[in-house]
Amino acid sequence: MTIKLDPNQKPTLEQLEKMAREDPRVLQIFPAGTGYGLRGAIINDDKRKICFGTPSGAALYISLSQRAWLSSESILEAELFEFNTEARSWGPTRHETLYNMFEERMANIIFAYTAVEAFANESIPNEYEHKATRSDGRCTEVYSREQIERNLSLDLKLGSILPQVFNVQTPKGTKLWESYLELKQLRDRLVHLKHYDATGRPGLPEPDTVWAQLYENRHYDYSKSAHQIISYFAHATRIWVRRYPYWRRATE
After folding, report:
1. The domain containing residue 231 runs over which residues?
2. Which stretches of 93-204 are assigned E, i.e. beta strand?
3. I want to staple 38 with a disulfide (CB 3.0 to 4.6 A). Which of 53, 95, 163, 236 is the partner?
4. Does 223 share its domain with 195?
5. Euclidean distance between CA atoms 83 and 71, whole angstroms
């Protein structure tokens, strides 16, 4: 059976109810016939061809980020440290528990940043071109969508390209931009981990390792920062943005 798709079709109440029951992490969902359709993808499983709704990469990453935060919060409910009377100092109750917490904090931050990056790439129209004067000033360079995705920084995408795509003001200079820069700094520090980030610089009065920074911000959910940045551009146009957060604490 062929279902005719009408881009101007407004969903009925019944269709809206059906669409609301679908997983919000889909890339694209739309009314079709008397039900709804999803932008499709295919994978091969031995002799079977599996068809499914294409997920939004950004939605999956922000979901992973939030899950990691929930997991770290669960770990932090236990006492991580105890006083060693022989050494007369505080230390981990179990290193395994402490390291698990660090892993989840790392995942929360890295996946949050990756969600923003994936969203930026998903949002650039196929026909969009970015023009920029070359550094020597001798010509204008024109970047296609694929070249923008591969060659231009996320700073440029969020600060200049997406404001044009969504017809909004640049977030540069705002508290939202400061939040993005904080997320970027933490993500870069983790992904490009340097010797002194892991071990600390000698002679400093306070610990400046990335582990100290992770613990200092141990209760903050960076998927919220990612969601705020993404919502600035696309709250009304992405179902997965509107329906975040996807997961709740067991006590909520």
Report:
1. 57-123+174-238
2. 130-133, 140-143
3. 53
4. yes
5. 25
